[in-house]
Design goal:
Layout: H1 2-37, H2 42-68, H3 76-92, E1 97-99, E2 107-112, H4 129-132, H5 138-148, E3 152-160, E4 169-178
Antiparallel strand pairs: 1-2, 2-4, 3-4
Helix pairs in contact: 2-5
């Protein structure tokens, strides 16, 4: 009986690896298509990836709370640790490092030792992608969308990426303001 359980566990690991690789390859194909659709205007591709991520984030936060059992964080530092140690771990099985806090504790960096979206990736060699394309920009949008749903308006952007020749992949998140419970425009 124990060998059957071990076999099932091994199958699950193989399935998880195949699923992760499928997501990675699918994401890479989507970014390549966006580059083509926008004639390699990488600033527009970055905007589209952020917008897609935002739309994912506003929905993903409900799944996060349902699966994690985490309660609302007490401050922005706690939020950063929760994003890193629980959110990224739960959805991508990675744990970026929280670092470089600003003096006012309204800004921090996430340092990625690994990025599953960037596996198997080479940026286009057109002399511009290395300087203009933020391949994993969807993560910035996901964080913006998810945090907005818990009344935190943030700005998120990459400041370095190994794919662009950087020593690290680093995302900067800045708290712009805590939002009051607001009705969306045109809703009554």
């Amino acid at each position: 009986m124990a060998s059957n359980k071990s076999a099932r566990d091994g199958e699950k690991t193989n399935v998880d690896k195949v699923n992760a690789e499928l997501v990675t390859l699918t994401y890479g194909t989507m970014v390549a298509q966006l580059c083509s659709d926008f004639n390699h205007k990488y600033e527009e591709v970055n905007k589209q990836l952020d917008k897609m991520g935002y739309n994912i984030g506003v929905r993903l936060i409900e799944d996060f709370f349902a699966k994690s059992g985490v309660q609302r964080c007490g401050n922005f530092r706690e939020t950063a640790e929760t994003i890193s140690k629980i959110g990224f771990k739960m959805f991508l099985n990675i744990t970026p490092t929280v670092a470089n806090w600003s003096a006012d504790s309204k800004s921090f960096s996430l340092i990625f030792d690994e990025n599953p979206l960037a596996d198997f990736v080479e940026l286009p060699n057109d002399g511009r992608a290395q300087d203009e394309l933020w391949f994993s920009n969807i993560f910035c949008g996901i964080l913006r969308g998810a945090l907005e749903m818990v009344q935190m308006q943030v700005e998120a952007h990459y400041i370095s990426d190994i794919l662009r020749g950087g020593d690290t992949t680093e995302m900067r998140i800045t708290l712009l303001r805590y939002m009051e419970d607001e009705m969306p425009p045109d809703d009554e």
